[in-house]
Protein 1
Amino acid sequence: MGTEAKPAVHPLIAALNDEEWHVRKPAAEALAAIGPASKPAISLLIETLNDEEWHVRKPAALALGAIGPDARQAIPVLKEMLNDPELQVQEAVTDALEKIAGQSNASGLER
């Protein structure tokens, strides 16, 4: 989607707070698709990494990775998430850390 979808960022941020994970998941996925223009969602995406549903945690991590280096403040929480019980979340977190911290830095992150 990219920057053309920037007007959707604030409604998607609101959707991250929905009671239903079936709403939170696609909101996080859309923020990931928007990429760096989703920067206003960083704080809530970090909170969303603690969602009870792994189906929501995964796209939240991917969204932070899609935002890139501007999401550096997420690194400590993402490092904690490397031990998430769901393998798909662990993979998304690894991908996000590589995109945020850079390939060379992320490979040295401890689990």
Protein 2
Amino acid sequence: MRLLLIILALLSGLCAWSQNNGFSASYNRKASLFQLLPNTKNEIIFLGNSMTAGGEWGELLQNSHVKNRGISGDTTKGIMNRLGEVTASSPRKVFLLIGINDLATGKSKETVFENICKIAQQIRKDSPRTKVYIQSMFPVNDQLRESPVKKDEEIVWVNKQLENWCLSNNFEFIELYSHFVVPGTYLLNPVHTNDGGHFTGEAYLKWAAILKPYVKEK
């Protein structure tokens, strides 16, 4: 009986939190699920927005330690809001990809860069054993999008700043942008997308192949 009351109190608290934190209903549904899933040893967390959420990472990487913590539409603010759940298990690795939705909704490139750095630093502070990998943002293809983002130069700028910052602060930067862009342009290669902003299955296979050595390394 006591255990049941504790569970009900926890669920009640989660409901109140989700209704009052200023994030979308879909964000809160997913975040509340992540809060309730069990922590395990040596987790490898994939953390980000819809690009991360869309990947079946455990299967793509053939690794049972991999957990997907992506939420469609997420932003740097949303990631910071739920970092406690991510670091609670002291994961072995975190692969972070975030920022495009911030840019798309009007956040400055400087704010996006600073927030990503803050996320990485907070993970290191809360879970010192965790190795943090910061992935570059991908290009987009406005010619295929119903709602053009038109933040090409900002994406490139943030990626470059992150690469330099990681080198100076002992974080691992994974450059993905050049693998998916049409050479000589800012455009996401159409062979990798059907809407200009999200990946097809083949693109996920390519992405996973790039990440596999980082996932496997000690």
Protein 3
Amino acid sequence: YDGVAELRDGTKELREETATLDTDIIDGIKEKFDELMGKGMPTHSFTSDKNGEITAVQFVMRTEGISIPKVETVLPEPEKTTLWNKLLKLFGL
């Protein structure tokens, strides 16, 4: 009898503790997402006070430098052609 009563109490406690589990998980995800996106943090304007009416927004993004790899091009040596080779090429032979 004691084991059945303990099982009943345990399942009751499990049901009570997990009744709002779905909303708790969603709320936790939303809270973490807001934290990662900086919600509630002060925003800073980097525009000059001299600019009265700003009509366009510009963004500056700092990235690693872009470099073009140097490729060594080796040109084939021009073949030495003789008169006979030129005639053969002329007639497609």
Protein 4
Amino acid sequence: MIITASTKSSGPVRLAGEVARVRGRVVIVGDVRIDIPRKLYYEKELDIRLSMSYGPGRYDPSYEEKGIDYPLPYVRWTEKRNMEAFLDLIKERNLDVKPLITHRFSIEDAKRAYELISGEKKEPYLAILLNYNNDNESQSVDVEKIFLKKGINSSTSVSDPKCIGFIGAGDFAKGVLLPTLKNIGDLRLKGIATATGMTSRHAGERFGFEYCTSDYKEIINDPEIGCVFIVTRHDLHAKIASEALESGKHVFLEKPLALGEEELRELIKSKERSQGSLMVGFNRRFSSFSKEAKALFAKRVNPLIVNYRVNAGFIPKTHWSQDIREGGGRIIGEICHFVDLIQFLIGSPPVRVYAEGISPRTDDVLISDNLVVCIKFEDGSVGNVTYSALGSKRISKERIEIFGDNSVLVIDDFRGSEWVGNNKIKKKRKWLGQDKGHKAEVRAFIQALLEKQPLPIDFGEAIITTLTTFKIVESLYKGMPVNICP
């Protein structure tokens, strides 16, 4: 007996018990309330099982996202094999689904179909089929590249830094970077690429790109595009950036720069061979609060102490950013931001790190999400990063305290700051909203390219910041200070 119903009632479970034979099996696939009537199931000695929808592999990131299949001799029916078998049955006409179809709509009338499903139209239904007009076979679409504007053809001219290509269109890209680019005048948004065609087309149409594609190499190989923004998942950063640099393009690369030292070495080699430039998206140094802080301590005599507290928020182990191969973990993927800002404020490279993490008592808590990092800098300054995923959301995410020459500056979540000088001078500043420097960062990058000036973040500083995060990981697991030797 298989239950595929969806209800808050336990009625289907009771009915299945009544219908099943003695020592039968009840398999629950649907979302039903499971209140098992003991007497009924006990007297028949019924076996009750729960089955994930679609079969083994469902909800497993390694299977669904990375394509790591279960070995056939041990798992016969996986999610993919179940689907294949079902489609084969239909193809061979051994399974007739026509009686299930109660409604048919053309794609032009799709709105009516969804009104039926949403309950706006009071009419019983089972399966609804949308028909596409395939009369004209010449209308087939090449999903690799779709032109979104009329009159656009393949490019032939040389690359131009005003001509922008964009690779990746996640929430951060669509919420921050793409709107900023769209609002900068005199730029040509040419091509956008994402892993899936639908996402690429939606983002391309929304932000005014000339074409969209599911193949990022279309962007890399486009001779007109002179500047590429790379905002993919972390494991692709160094690879795609190297390819873009080798093709002679300027690159804006979201953090992190790389996930390992070998990747970093290869990227450095590509940069050395290229006429293009590269800047990493360390946005916090472009905040007005950060710039003010650097200016206030510009004439200091002694080294600084910088405390950076990060109330990071919890991210589960299963999230892609926590995967060492795909996201690099939060030290490499996020703490790099804080290392870079401290380096910017101090104006000196880090030379040694020591990291110490908590000893978790539950499996959901990671050491790498809850640690304290002490960084020694070449000029004698010290930076401390307290990073935790155990805090309350009611407390601000970031707080920076800078001590030096009888003065203290506090930046509270990039919404306000307070400075107390050595002559009882006190200065407070509030910001309407939050200024983390994202817009200023993109504008500074574009301006430097157009004016043929050095980029606002030196590539060498980005390398040191990235290398420092690798050494933080090393120190955390060795339990001892580690020198940073670029």
